[in-house]
Amino acid sequence: MLSRRSGSRSNDSLTPAEQSQADRVSALSQILDVLPDAAAIVDGADRVLASSANCTAMGIVVAERIGPVEIRAINREAHRLSKTQSREVTVKRTGSKLGDWEARIQISPIDEDLSLLIAQDLSEERRLNDVRRDFVANVSHELKTPVGALSLLAEAVQAADSDIEQVRHFTSRMQIEVKRLTAMISDLVALSQVQGDAPLRNSAPVEVQSIISESVDSSKIVADQKNIEVTFGSDSDVGRIFGDEQQLTTALSNLISNAIKYSPNNTRVGIGARRTDDTIEISVTDQGPGIPDSDLDRIFERFYRVDPARSRDTGGTGLGLAIVKHVCANHGGDCIVWSRVGQGSTFTLRFPAYLNGSATPMEVSGK
To answer: Residues 336-353: pLDDT tens digits?
Structure first.
């Protein structure tokens, strides 16, 4: 909502100069709420004559004046020099739990009396930059392990070229590291796809039964190697989900793959599906070691592992559950976890059910 401030006097009592200024403010104020950032019309004495609603929420406007002293200084300089002033500032927010506020402030003179103030909140930009920086650091660290191992194994093969048994041993280890590296690259590609700008380009109603069947089939070889029985009930025909079939299958396949990796040999992994009102749930239950309560809040973070040593043994990349989280978010759903140490875990995907003949929010927005 736009806020305009024209003083306490009526238009009839304004001088021609004051009326001219009021008209200019009225005309300019129409664009403020259209701008993506907080914006205000201010004068050289730091009075705010009109502002967009988020100016007050961000603490720019206090009692119809520019609040932060840092922004007042920029405003005075812009009016003194009659030239646009732009800089980044850190605003101290006293008495707030939100902490300091970082913003890019631009103040542009409109005429000798008025200026346009635009404030771009940098908090989200800084947060995303931190996430990207941490992600690059994590990827670099994770890639060092298999690449370093391959380098050492290649040297070992070269040194043992006359010992056939040693060569076979080292080359088999090289194959393991190559598989680990390939899996990590595949997961990185999958993660970039599900968190892209347009993650649901191939959306359509998808049968839940089809998602389960395809995911179980893709895990059959790994399950057979550990003599783990993967079962799913005959009542899995619970309806359809509107979304990207490949993403949905990837998410469920990751949960089944994890269940198999972390379950002992000769156990069982169960998959179930049910529909409650307008929600479809797909659950994967294992008989693995379980997850401590202290780790449950972090297991969907990229590269986070409950037991790093065990993950190396199973070939886990630490990206599977991060992919699951993004797929759920893309489809308006979520993933909930139940786990007890020594008893196993159950991961449940929850999605809005597709209702025949009606558009879902994702169909309307494309996400």
So the answer is: 999 999 889 999 999 999
